[in-house]
């Protein structure tokens, strides 16, 4: 029986999850070959870099982006380099549900096996004007009809990710030839894998970028829920990456100036972290932070325990299924203990009370 000592309320044993990712282990690149991978926002940045890496190891990659020229040119180049005609670009606006639905449907048709193995929900933007107008708004009190603020960052970085995730669950769970994920199965011809792209801004506040941080916190919340339910309900393994500042088009000139002289993460480390998640099918429910690649002595001084020299990739939720968010877990623990004590009598009593009320009151009207 699991311990119920004060402050120690673990998750149930039914949760399907793997141990913390061991970044000292070699990556099994052979397990990428033949997989069909979808990447939103794949024409530049992390998406384009991962596309190049996975295509080089035999994956069939389909990217979606609003930048048709960049996406078309990238696919043409990688097709030529790899000799694989199963790479495709499709026009995609992640903030539009019809656009995303059409993207997934067409991608499945283009896939050599008629299904999808991996989905990387990568598309994202930053907007300094949006962030600035939110923190320094006009005097709405003097306006007769104040215009609604623009929230494009939230539309793309959060709503877009939710759309992608919703469709990914539908398609991954029906991937032909695939099986429910298992921590004991590290390789297989087919997979069911969703990669959510958040940020260090999803784990901590980010001054001057409240919209961006809000969206990325939302992605973390989505991950922390789906990492529990995805494997249990749909056999899908859900993982996440949380990069620190990296020099990509997303960072922009303003961001590069702010970070000038600072220690940024490297895109090759982001690629390595994401590739680990793709290549090992036994990795389930893990989140990797990608930070500055510094000396082990610096990492130890910060309280980290590196397992490789100049470690840049860290498992951010390494032990949270054993004990996390003490206050919240205690609140949930109180609820669980009360529910356990009440048992079926309590369930029947509550259901009976609801059914005795008029139907419209049960619905909340």
UniProtKB/TrEMBL annotation:
Pfam family, one: adh_short
Keyword presence, Oxidoreductase: yes
Cellular component per GO, a single term: cytoplasm
Gene Ontology terms for molecular function: oxidoreductase activity, acting on the CH-OH group of donors, NAD or NADP as acceptor
SUPFAM superfamilies listed in its UniProt record: NAD(P)-binding Rossmann-fold domains (SSF51735)
InterPro entries reported in the protein's UniProt record: NAD(P)-bd_dom_sf, Sc_DH/Rdtase_CS, SDR_fam
Keywords assigned by UniProt, alphabetized: NADP, Oxidoreductase
Sequence similarity: Belongs to the short-chain dehydrogenases/reductases (SDR) family.
Protein name (record): Uncharacterized protein
Organism expressing this protein natively: Exophiala bonariae
Lineage: Eukaryota, Fungi, Dikarya, Ascomycota, Pezizomycotina
């Amino acid at each position: 029986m699991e311990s119920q000592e004060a402050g120690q309320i673990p998750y149930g044993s039914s949760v399907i999850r793997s141990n913390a990712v061991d970044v000292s282990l070699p990556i099994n690149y052979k397990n990428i070959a033949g997989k069909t991978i979808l990447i939103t926002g794949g024409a530049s940045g992390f998406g384009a870099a991962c596309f190049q890496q996975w295509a080089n190891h035999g994956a069939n990659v389909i990217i979606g982006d609003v930048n048709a020229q960049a996406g078309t040119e990238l696919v043409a180049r990688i097709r030529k380099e790899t000799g694989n005609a199963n790479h495709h670009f499709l026009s995609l606006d992640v903030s539009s549900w019809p656009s995303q639905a059409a993207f997934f449907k067409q991608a499945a048709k283009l896939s050599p096996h008629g299904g999808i193995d991996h989905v990387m929900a990568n598309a994202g933007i930053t907007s300094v004007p949006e962030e600035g107008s939110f923190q320094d708004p006009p005097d709405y009190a003097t306006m007769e009809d104040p215009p609604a603020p623009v929230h494009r960052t939230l539309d793309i970085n959060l709503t877009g990710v939710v759309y992608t995730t919703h469709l990914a669950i539908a398609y991954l769970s029906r991937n032909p030839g695939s099986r429910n994920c298992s921590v004991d199965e590290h390789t297989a011809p087919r997979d069911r894998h969703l990669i959510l792209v958040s940020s260090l801004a999803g784990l901590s506040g980010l001054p001057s970028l409240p919209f961006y941080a809000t969206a990325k916190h939302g992605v973390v919340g989505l991950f922390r829920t789906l990492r529990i339910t995805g494997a249990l309900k749909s056999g899908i393994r859900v993982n996440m990456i949380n990069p620190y500042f990296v020099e990509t088009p997303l960072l922009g000139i303003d961001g590069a100036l702010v970070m000038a002289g600072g220690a940024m993460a490297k895109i090759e480390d982001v690629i390595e972290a994401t590739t680990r998640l793709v290549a090992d099918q036994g990795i389930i429910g893990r989140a990797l932070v990608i930070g500055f690649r510094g000396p082990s002595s610096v990492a130890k001084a910060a309280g980290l325990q590196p397992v490789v020299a100049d470690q840049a990739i860290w498992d951010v939720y390494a032990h949270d299924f054993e004990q996390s968010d003490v206050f919240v877990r205690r609140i949930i623990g109180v609820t669980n203990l009360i529910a356990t004590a009440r048992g079926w009598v309590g369930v029947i009593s509550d259901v009976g009370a609801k059914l005795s009320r008029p139907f419209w009151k049960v619905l909340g009207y």
